[in-house]
């Protein structure tokens, strides 16, 4: 009898824990970081692993294993790491402050903004801290890497339509969430879309986002030109590029989403073959990209003289058919006039997105041919001698991928 | 004069029919010869509109370094200001084109430009114009100061306002931004000396930028106070100490005075001091007496009185202005905002003017239209204007698209990045 009070006490703690930890069944539901800001840590909950893990702001708690990506114009290195106290694998982004000059404010902004957001399709940060001349950001590992990695490794002619629908559905959900909070993402693109081990698409890259709330006022339009976005130009909407008195709003993200869906469908970045000034002309004159298939692919457009791979990609374009719904989805998103473009909350009702519900297939089934970017057990163990790992992982695409 | 219909304006010999080309060299030559023509009295003759021939404006792509040239935004004594587009980042820019030949003719011209570049390079504030790049073309004796793009000047907006004054809340917003920028400049030991609505630029989002530091003075790092000895600012905005010809005066208080005149101007539509000529004007300023229109509220009257104190010692300092109730007060938006007006060409949104040049850059000239559009007479133009007025406005005309077969980018080899 004497132990009863103890038992009930311990039971109640478990209850409170579970109520905190299980509001949703998602692997990425974490306690908002802002609440634990003084400790700069959060409690992640993985479905298979109900134990609570504290991610400390201490470099000694993370054993770096291998480099899995680079970003922020070579100033950031993303490594696979083992969280020593728990044995869990995490991704660590290390930003060299000496190498990164003007990016610094963007990085600070990204950490601040990310800490305030909490959504199953947004990349969370467990914690961040300074270690010597680097800023370390601890994140969950996204085993399939970015959508751009997936295209480069297995789908050079683009992803299957259904896979794009799954990705778009998740990204739309993330966009709807951030738009409601007054943020415009401004860099929705394949390299900012990560795919988790459970087949969820996760949006990252909030570094380039801007806030429509300024001086306590909700601004209808924004005029500020994203000054550091040379690498995002292909995805920016005509109204952002125009820089005139009309300005832009959250609908510019919808345009970027349209460009991104063409990127996923075709396996190449739209406008990649032309200088930015020409891309600007094309957009302002209303010639948006299209998903290439038997209907939209113009044979005469490009000479077929390049290598075998190019010919096979071209043949894929010529022989496939995308659904009417997909064509309509991209052309809606790519409306030049933002007033005629749908709003974020309308798009999940589009037939193209709705097809996700009608199928029993999952994104993971569709990506079955892709070997996960990070095959955890087989990775070589490596303490901080990262240089050695670079050689072994040379086959991985390191140029622009994994831009968290 | 006997037969006016057939007389022609004589410019350097028999220049009939005149060709107005879109080339700044040609134009300056013509203007120079006009102004410097000492042979005989200058007579204006009537010319038949059919005999004035324009060469069609061919928007030929021109690149200066990585920048694509756009249309002219304005013109100053030193040269032109044009719009530009950074071809790599696609960011809109403005460029001040300075010609050595013209600069030599302006008192202290070259020195002022050098100083302005030096000053702007070390400044970084939201309400002070940023210098992005400086390019030189030794061969053409030109200098390009590439700056942040602004859509309008406060002066231009003011002229559009009813009674040439802003709604109080709008004027308050601009004034506060002016204070922010000015306080920053003073903190950097810089005295602007030419604050006026014509030197306050506006961006697309309504941010005010203090520009034209051509006559500004940077105080010596070890100077014990803000004493200045020279001023080349605009007469109507000069304080009594300068109008009275004092040898030394407080620099900061000069900027306070001209900001006061600016505030007076944008809230009343008038100037506190006027005069038929500069002597009369300076005489009036020297007395320091002015009247504020009655419809100005007491708070603002008080602030204006404080900023336009004849004695610089009595005149408010920026810190005091910030503490002033009129500045701290929240002004309700009761009246409609005065917006940036249409461009002369009917462009409502001040869109990029480089687009036709980019068209030329990437898709080449339109051969089909060339023959018909090469020469236009004034008469044709007038007819076209009438046609335009009668027919409904057509916007977003879709330009012809050509396949990007050949892309050639002309670059000036002699353009060096500084």
Overview of the molecule:
The complex is a heterodimer of chains A (404) and B (418). By secondary structure, chain A is an alpha+beta fold. Chain A contains twelve helices and eleven strands. Chain A has a five-stranded antiparallel beta sheet with strand order 1-2-3-5-4. In chain A, strands 6-9 form a two-stranded antiparallel ribbon. The radius of gyration of chain A is 22 Å and the shape is globular. In chain A, 43% of the residues are buried. The N terminus and C terminus of chain A are likely disordered. Chain B has 14 helices and 17 strands. By secondary structure, chain B is of the alpha+beta class. Chain B is globular. Chain B has a seven-stranded antiparallel beta sheet. In chain B, helix 5 packs antiparallel against helix 7. At the A-B interface, helix 7 of A face helix 12 of B. Chain B: It is found in: Cytoplasm. Chain B: Its EC number is 2.7.11.1.
Over all CA atoms, what is the radius of gyration of chain B? 25 Å
Which segments of chain A are poorly predicted (pLDDT under 50) over 5 or more consecutive residues? 1-51, 376-404
Low-confidence segments of chain B, given as residue ranges, are: 1-40, 368-373, 392-418
CATH homology superfamily of the largest domain in chain A: Transferase(Phosphotransferase) domain 1
> What distance separates the N and C termini of chain A?
55 Å
Q: Please state how the strands of the largest beta sheet of chain B are arranged side by side.
A: 3-4-5-6-8-7-17
| Structure annotation, total helices of chain B | 14
Specify the helix fraction band of chain A: 25-40%
- Shape type of chain A: globular
CATH topology of the largest domain in chain B: Transferase(Phosphotransferase), domain 1
């Amino acid at each position: 009898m004497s132990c009863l009070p103890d038992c009930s006490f311990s039971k109640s703690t478990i209850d409170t824990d579970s109520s905190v930890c299980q509001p949703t069944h998602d692997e990425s539901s974490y306690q908002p970081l802002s609440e634990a800001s003084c400790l700069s840590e959060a409690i992640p909950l993985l479905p298979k692993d109900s134990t609570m893990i504290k991610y400390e702001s201490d470099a000694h708690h993370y054993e770096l294993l291998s480099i899995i990506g680079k970003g922020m114009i070579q100033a950031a290195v993303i490594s696979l790491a083992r969280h020593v106290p728990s044995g869990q694998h995490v991704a660590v982004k290390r930003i060299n402050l000496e190498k990164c000059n003007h990016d610094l404010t963007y990085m600070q902004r990204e950490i601040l903004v990310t800490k305030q957001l909490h959504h199953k399709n947004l990349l969370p940060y467990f914690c961040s801290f300074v270690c010597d001349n680097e800023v370390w950001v601890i994140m969950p590992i996204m085993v399939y890497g970015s959508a751009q990695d997936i295209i480069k490794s297995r789908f050079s002619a683009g992803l299957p339509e259904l896979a794009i629908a799954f990705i778009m559905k998740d990204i739309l959900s993330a966009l709807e969430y951030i738009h409601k909070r007054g943020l415009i993402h401004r860099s929705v693109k394949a390299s900012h879309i990560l795919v988790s081990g459970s087949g969820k698409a996760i949006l990252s890259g909030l570094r380039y986002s801007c806030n429509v709330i300024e001086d306590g006022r909700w601004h209808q339009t924004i005029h500020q030109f994203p000054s550091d976005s040379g690498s995002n130009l292909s995805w920016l909407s005509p109204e952002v590029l125009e820089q005139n008195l009309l300005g832009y709003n959250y609908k510019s993200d919808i345009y970027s989403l349209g460009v991104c869906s063409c990127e996923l469908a075709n396996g190449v970045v739209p406008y990649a073959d032309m200088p930015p000034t020409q891309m600007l002309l094309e957009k302002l004159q209303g010639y948006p990209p299209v998903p290439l298939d038997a209907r939209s692919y113009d044979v005469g457009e490009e000479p077929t003289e390049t290598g075998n791979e190019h010919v096979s990609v071209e043949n894929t374009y010529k022989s496939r058919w995308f659904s009417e719904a997909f064509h309509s989805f991209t052309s809606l998103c790519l409306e030049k006039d933002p007033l005629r473009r749908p709003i974020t909350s309308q798009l999940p009702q589009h037939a193209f997105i709705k097809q996700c519900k009608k199928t029993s297939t999952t994104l993971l089934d569709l990506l079955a041919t892709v070997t996960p970017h990070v095959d955890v057990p087989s990775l070589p163990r490596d303490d901080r001698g990262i240089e050695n790992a670079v050689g072994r992982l040379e086959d991985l695409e390191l140029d622009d991928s994994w831009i968290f | 004069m006997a037969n006016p219909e057939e007389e022609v304006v004589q410019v350097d010999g028999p220049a009939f029919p005149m060709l107005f080309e879109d080339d700044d060299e040609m134009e300056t030559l013509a203007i120079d010869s006009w102004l410097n023509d000492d042979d005989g009295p200058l007579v204006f003759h009537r010319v038949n509109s059919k005999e004035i021939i324009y060469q069609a404006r061919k928007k030929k792509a021109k690149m200066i370094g990585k920048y694509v040239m756009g249309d002219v935004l304005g013109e100053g004594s030193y040269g032109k200001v044009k719009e530009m587009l950074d071809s790599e980042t696609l960011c809109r820019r403005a460029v001040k084109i300075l010609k050595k030949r013209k600069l030599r003719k302006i008192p202290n011209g070259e020195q002022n430009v050098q100083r302005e570049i030096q000053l702007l390079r070390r400044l970084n504030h939201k309400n002070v114009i940023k210098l992005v790049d400086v390019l030189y073309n030794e061969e053409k004796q030109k200098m390009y100061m590439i700056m942040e793009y602004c859509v309008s000047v406060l002066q231009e907006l003011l002229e559009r306002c009813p009674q040439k004054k802003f709604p109080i809340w709008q004027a308050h917003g601009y004034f506060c931004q002016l204070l922010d920028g000015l306080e920053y400049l003073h903190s950097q030991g810089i005295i602007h000396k030419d604050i006026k609505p014509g030197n306050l630029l506006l961006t697309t989002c309504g941010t005010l930028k203090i520009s034209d530091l051509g006559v500004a003075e940077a105080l010596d790092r070890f100077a014990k106070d803000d004493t200045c000895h020279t001023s080349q600012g605009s007469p109507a905005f000069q304080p009594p100490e300068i109008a009275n010809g004092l040898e030394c005066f407080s620099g900061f208080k000069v900027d306070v005075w001209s900001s006061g005149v600016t505030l007076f101007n944008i809230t009343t539509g008038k100037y506190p001091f006027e005069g038929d000529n500069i002597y009369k004007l300076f005489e009036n300023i020297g007395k320091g007496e002015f009247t504020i229109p009655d419809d100005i509220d007491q708070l603002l009257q008080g602030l204006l009185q404080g900023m336009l104190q004849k004695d610089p010692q009595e005149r408010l300092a920026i810190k005091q202005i910030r503490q002033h109730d009129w500045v701290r007060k929240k002004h309700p938006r009761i009246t409609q905002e005065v917006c940036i007006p249409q461009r002369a060409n009917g462009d409502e949104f001040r869109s990029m003017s480089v687009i036709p040049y980019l068209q030329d850059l990437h898709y080449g000239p339109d051969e089909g239209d060339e023959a018909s559009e090469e020469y236009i007479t004034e008469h044709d133009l007038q007819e076209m204007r009438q046609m335009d007025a009668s027919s409904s406005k057509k916007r977003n005309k879709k330009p012809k698209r050509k396949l990007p077969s050949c892309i050639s980018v002309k670059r000036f080899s002699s353009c060096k990045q500084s």
